Amino acid sequence: MTIGYFGDARLEKNGELITRRVAERQTVCVRKLADDRSGQVKLRRFLSNKAVTVEEMVAHRAMFVAAVAKGRHVLAIQDTSEINYQAQSGRKHGLGTVGNGTDVGLFVHPVLAVDAETQECLGLVDAQVWRRTKSKAKNYKRLPIEEKESYRWVRGGEQAKAVLAEAAMVTVMDDREGDIYEKWARLPDERTHLLTRASRDRNLADGGRLFATLARLPEAHRFTLDLPARPGKRGARTALMAVRFGPIRICRPGACSDRNAPPEIELYAIEVRELNPPPDDAICWRLLTTHPVENIEQALTVIGWYRLRWHIEQLFRTLKRQGLGIEQSVVEDGEALEKLAVIALIVATTTMQLVLARAAGGQYPPTSRVFDAEQTEVLHALQKTLQGRTRKQQNHHPPDSLAWAGWTIARLGGWTGYDSDKSMGPITMRDGLERFNGIVDGYKLAKNVCPS
Predict the structure, then answer these.
(1) Are 97 and 148 in contact (CB under 8 A)?
(2) What is the band of 452 on the pLDDT scale with cuts at 50, 70, 90?
(3) Helices 426-449 and 310-319 sit at what angle, rounded to 10 degrees?
(4) N- to C-terminal Cα distance for the chain?
(5) Domain contains 37
(6) Which CATH number is 402's domain given?
(7) pLDDT for 24-45, tens place per residue?
(8) Which domain holds residue 399?
């Protein structure tokens, strides 16, 4: 798995090595990635080398996404997560502060590409990584958007447009933090749309306010939504949701730093509100989009796209404690940790490709997206062992497809093989990959010791 051209063949080889090891061993711990002391030194030197940059690694992986995105409608899903190293603060240097303003760490802001029609995960379009080393300026609100951290939402969309230039359509999608007027003003064009969950009760051109206007729209549809349990927060339940939608015109807020932004922008708004919710746990999504929403079918399509935003939350889950353990890394230098975070994001995205492969709507990307020829041989050898006697326990996906491989890896991770078993998420896949790569190591050893 190549991750960049760094002007030195040895660096390119070492970059491929560290990424492959993270994928095989499902950890970012340097001691576990290297087989001996010299291997540890080699990997640490790679991370500290000035020629190795976050920008090159991100651009290199985006190149592959651009190739597979041609002609598709791609959802470019972006979000931010903090990587917290406060538990190791005494051993770290060169970091900034994170969420609470005192803990040390860094931030990652990936843009994940997902096919809007098939839900296939295409890969990582962009990733911004930074350390917050300065306190907020007193005149922060008056600064140009380019000088604010919130510019990441605009930049992520701009990168998605550039990388996905040959896609049929791009929908940049984000949650409430991405509800920024400058983004609405700059990003949309004939093939680039936005879909964001509203965070501000904006002024509308007709003199009204966004939230009250949405609440007054006529109810157009109802549907049920299965909500999973959240331990300590809520139990599982089936929610009855009411849908309202209509066109709106939002006004440029006084805090908008771009004086060239238009005074009004026409959008479509959707409200999805739970009926008869339990106390203090109501579900309410207010969605803003540049996509036309003039009938129920269009509204439900946009709502379906928004629900796919969950995949980037799963990406963060794969990145952290339950997955690759990026917050447990003992690498000490902040700049090196930025590079390691990008490598971890690349590998976590590969895991998400496997998670989503089985839901890819009849599309069957090949195993070569993730596995080499020798690993594919092992996948074939495992089929007889992992498939059950009944039809429901058969791997019915086309051989040598990523969905077929994902079924196999999930079985190794503890999934029962039944569609009723929903435990086929990124953590199951991570456990399966760790076990699978141990089997591959044994397979290689057997071939070397007992050649045919």
Answers:
(1) no
(2) low
(3) 50
(4) 28
(5) no
(6) 1.10.740.10
(7) 999 999 999 999 999 999 999 9
(8) 364-449
